[in-house]
Amino acid sequence: MVSDLNQPDDELAVTSDYVPGARGHAVLAVGADSDGREALAVWRLSAAGRAGGAWVLRFDEVERDAEQLVAVVRLLLDRCLIDWDAEAATSILGRIGHLLPAPMVAALEGNVLAIPDLLDEIGEQRARYDEAVERHRALSKSKIASLAWPTEVPARKELAERTSVQPAAASPVAAAALALTSAVAATAQLWEDTEQTRYRRSYLRSLGEPLPLPPRWLARLREAVASSAATSA
Predict the structure, then answer these.
(1) What would the pLDDT profile of 144-157 be if each residue is shown by its tens digit?
(2) Terminus of the chain with fewer CB atoms < 10 Å: N or C?
(3) What are the two backbone dihedrals, phi and then psi, of residue 168, each rounded to the nearest 5 degrees?
(4) Cα–Cα distance between 165 and 64 in angstroms, integer?
(5) Element (DSSP H or E) covering residue 59
(6) Which residues partner with 44 through β-bridges?
(7) Is the pLDDT of residue 199 over 60?
(8) If you write DSSP's letter for every residue of 142-160 in order, what string do you get?
(9) Is it the case that residue 77 has pLDDT exceeding 60?
């Protein structure tokens, strides 16, 4: 069974999610569906973590006929698979790899993100901004306050616990996919808060215009788009 909960014709038409050169993320999860049968959940996310398409596919059905699975996974090729660690994402991909064309599997395996790495990058950027404040303080005759971050960057365990409860989920496998979706959205929001806080200080604007995502994260999403275009060319 395939369930497409929300699949807009052009996800980039959502202004708040528009990131030039990037499409977003893909989430894979395995678990029981609403009938208790083992299933694969596939969530397609924007760069900011907003769901733009969601499917639940039963393993017994796709094993008999992989056409629907291939059609859904093809929609992910310009995105990065994302999970708590790279091994989790690739292990799920490994369960369905024999049903997919080899180039499709290779493309997805080459574009994988781990949420803890994204949290670390946000922490690194905040430290860079804090250091810039200290440099400015050393040269200024005025009293310069330290940057006050609206929310501290959480540890992996803290964020996982915070996003694990999904009471509106229709099934355990949907809950798993929604938990990952919430974690991606929360991480993107941390970055938005970071750039807003930084850009309020006029002397920190020399560090550059606000970025929609941290540099390495953004580069990986853009690489996924570029590799998809090269594969289909």
Answers:
(1) 999 999 999 999 99
(2) C
(3) -85, 0
(4) 33
(5) helix 59-64
(6) 26, 53
(7) yes
(8) S--PPP--SSPPPPHHHHH
(9) yes
Alpha helix locations (H) across 65-214?
67-74, 86-96, 102-109, 115-139, 156-163, 172-199
Which value, to the nearest 10 degrees, does the dihedral of the CA atoms of residues 187, 188, 192, 195 take? 80
Burial class (CB in 10 A: 0-12, 13-18, 19+), 141: exposed
Tell me the pLDDT tens digit for each residue of 85-142.
999 999 999 999 999 999 999 999 999 999 999 999 999 999 999 999 999 999 988 8
Q: Are 204 and 140 in contact (CB under 8 A)?
A: no
Q: Residue written as tokens 């960057």?
A: 153
Residue the block writes with tokens 């989920």: 169
Q: Which bin fits 92, alpha (ψ -120 to 50), beta or left (φ > 0)? A: alpha
Instruction: Say which amino acid occupies 101.
Output: P
pLDDT at 1: 46
23: tokens are 């499409």
What's this model's pTM, rounded to 2 decimal places? 0.90
Half-sphere exposure of 182 (CA within 13 A, CB side): 18
